[in-house]
Amino acid sequence: MAGHGSTLKPGKYEHYKGNYYEVIDVARHSETGELLVAYRPLYGEGALWVRPLDMFTETVTVNGQTRPRFRYSGDT
User: Fold this and answer.
1) Confidence at residue 75, expressed as pLDDT on a 0 to 100 scale
2) Is the pLDDT confidence value at 66 over 80?
3) Which of 14, 49, 64, 68 lies 20 to 30 A from 21 at CA?
């Protein structure tokens, strides 16, 4: 994916709160070199957003259970 050494695949992801998002690609910040995920919600206006890759792929604890913030759920 985009030659950035990321294992994140494009496609549909489910947020731990239940909404779905389409991951477009992973990009590199021009000043810091940080990897950013470009994605858009599959609801509402569908605006394009970016989030640091580390934050996108981190886990969260909800009601005592650890789960991924975003879970891959297939191609869009």
Assistant:
1) 82
2) yes
3) 64
CA–CA gap between residue 68 and residue 11 (Å, rounded)? 16
pLDDT of residue 2: 47
C-alpha span between 12 and 74 (Å, rounded) = 5
In one-letter notation, the amino acid at residue 50 is V
Q: What phi and psi, each to the nearest 5 degrees, are found at residue 60?
A: -130, 155
Read off the pLDDT of residues 19-63 as tens digits, 9 standing for 90 and up.
Answer: 999 999 999 999 999 999 999 999 999 999 999 999 999 999 999
Compute φ and ψ for 74, nearest 5 degrees. Answer: 120, 180
DSSP class of 20: E
- φ and ψ at residue 56, rounded to 5 degrees: -60, -40
Instruction: Give the side-chain half-sphere CA count within 13 A for 22.
Output: 10
